[in-house]
Amino acid sequence: MEKVTCKKPGCMVGETGICLLSHKTPESECPNYQLVVQDEPDAALGATPSVTVSEQKTPIPLPADAARYFDTGLELGTDEVAEIGRARYYHMVGVLGTSNVGKTCFLLSLYLKVSNGVLPNGYVFAGSMTLKGFEDRARRLRDWNLENLPDQLAEHTHLSDYRQPALLHIAFCEKPQHMRRFDVMFTDLPGEWCKHLVDRSSAAGRFEFLRRADGIVLVVDGGALMSDTKYSEIERSKQLMERLIHSVGIDPSVPLEVLVAKCDTIEMRRPDLLDDLLEYGRHLGFSPRETLSASFSKSPSVVQSGVGVFEPVDRILKHDLAPVSDKRRESNLVSDGRIFMNFRGTGR
Length: 348
Fold this sequence. Notes:
alpha/beta; single chain; three-stranded antiparallel sheet
């Protein structure tokens, strides 16, 4: 008697015939697939069945290789995220902007809020697969003296493989009774990536993974928008939005959140030029929304740290893309042909 089993936890290919990793023919494609042969016992002799593994796609590990594997906890690559996506839906949020606008500080402020349980709108922290990645980036914050905020709170983003994007993971559960779970992958990209994209369209290839994005957070420096360089700052942000549409191929139905960072330095005043940026986004086909934020305030008695950090994420998670355009349906594909259309974590 033959029985199909799988070495990957949670896979029920033997019962359902469906591979957890979405292989169309798991018996020939999946390395975890195995066929177990059970000999029929002779009831008269009181024998017990013997079990033989007749097919195994991977060799038996040697003792030196048999140790259990643990994730590093650092940033995830697109290949790792793709495998996660074969098992369950995840939201991808592209956090974009040029250097020193506050992208990493936004991510660290969000991480500190969720890990300390300071979440509005009925969410609770449900873990992270990249805790070490967050902690490595937050090293300077651990030594922060509230009376002397350093000029640079977070390390500049450096990728282990400069050719591949880095993603940081945070999981949320929704109250009450934690009925819905949201796995969110946030990009943490060097500002040079966005600068190169603005300078030349040939840099668009490294952003193609964002065609799968559920939302874009475009970070702009609020202080810069009220300085002598405000017009050049606005133009760079406009060009970046245009590249996302025309060069990268992002569908304009994807939510675009314009996060005005470092607003503690301008006492939470709204820059006048923000209207020009939002109008240009609408001209491109986006439906942009704005948020004034202060990830880490230099004057906490006036502006509280963390203001406006979670609001863009909350809106992206609640966004409903139905009906999804044909272009969006194509970009929803995860490798090996698995597709999650119209699903945004809103179902029970």
